[in-house]
Amino acid sequence: MLSWLFPKQKRDFTAKRYLSISLRTLHLFGIAGFAGFFLYDLPENLWRPYAILALATGLLMLMVELYVDAIWLIQLRGLAVITKIFLLLLAMNVPQLTIILFCIIVVISGYFSHAPGKVRYYSPFLKRVVKSSAELSFNQPYLRK
Asked: Which of 26, 14, 88, 86 is nearest to 57 (CA)?
């Protein structure tokens, strides 16, 4: 299981870059409409299609990242996504925190989208920058005990 999640070489597939760009663009469109729930107390029928779009594209982006290399899960960029999911669930269940939590999610998104690699690829578990699973000890035979 570990070798599938954390391959020695990142997996790639045809048109991955274009798929990622398309999903990210649709995700931003979905978030813009979903903001109606968070910021404007719009009726559900107005923001629900956007929420579905945002959640579906977010899940697909997550699946692409995990397929390519699950190292993402232990890097700050992946931990930021997990944090945003937790904050989203909290916002949907604690109405008095909805606006502030939405704003925090946007700040986290903006920061990690534009942060330098030494921040995005940093792993607090390994206490260093890790760019791929190939750098993990179980993927390096000369480091095994």
From this structure: 26
Question: How far apart are the C-alpha atoms of 144 and 2, rounded to whole Å?
Answer: 15
Q: How many domains does the chain have?
A: 2
Decide if 128 contacts 1 (C-beta within 8 A).
no
Per-residue pLDDT reduced to its tens digit, 12-21: 889 999 999 9
94 and 125 in a single domain? The answer is yes
Structure token digits, residue 124? 């607090």
Q: Which domain holds residue 108?
A: 70-145
Distance, CA of 47 to CA of 33 (rounded, Å):
6
Two tokens, residue 111: 């920061």
- E-assigned strand segments in 1-143: 122-123, 128-129
Once rounded to an integer, what is the mean pLDDT over residues 40-55? Answer: 94
Q: Is the domain of 84 the same as that of 112?
A: yes
